[in-house]
Amino acid sequence: MENNNKIPVHVGIIIDGNRRWARERNLPTFEGHRQGYEKVKQAPEWFFSRGVKILSFFVFSTENWNRAQDEVNYLMKLLEQAVENNLRELAKKNSYKILISGRLEELPGDLPAKCLEIITETKSNQRGIINVCLNYGGRPEIVDAVRKLIKN
Is 144 a catalytic residue? Predict the structure, then answer.
């Protein structure tokens, strides 16, 4: 049997299990999210250095709004930090294009504006693409598509 060791062009990662990981170790939920965030920060270098061209992260679904308010607030702070610092730095250092999709207008504070800024700043970058699916879900995607069809 032949082993071609083919590398996928596009890899999608669903961020899941941070709370479960923390619970199994008797740690606070927030620590699970923090540890997960640290792992996510390492992923682009690992995947792109192996030949992957597009990396998609599903980081916060529309269903996540149903969690405890303090957990949602913490996650929003992590997301803001990721967009403002980590993604921007990663894009500058490596010439990655950053695309952020989902219902951005429903995010708190200036997070929607920061998302749009980094998309604009990196639109010409071509070394690799990082998709961040934020406030995203299958059902809302269908609802939005139907509304758009009706409007047009």
Answer: no
